[in-house]
What does this fold into?
Amino acid sequence: MPAIAPSRELRKWYGHEPARFGEFQDLYLEELKDSERAAALVELMGMAPGGLTLTTATRELEISQAAVLQALLS
It folds into this structure.
């Protein structure tokens, strides 16, 4: 769902730099509070009441947007 992805600007700034992950996480969670993104997140959660499977192309799962979403959805 593109609506819940981090903004292009945030992704470019972050660049998967491990030292920036904490700040990336905080900024991404703030972005998810935007009304359009929040509505998409609620829609996503409603699609799979028994659970969701998150996929990502990153090799560094622990410092990815998927890790942030997993923590949020848990």
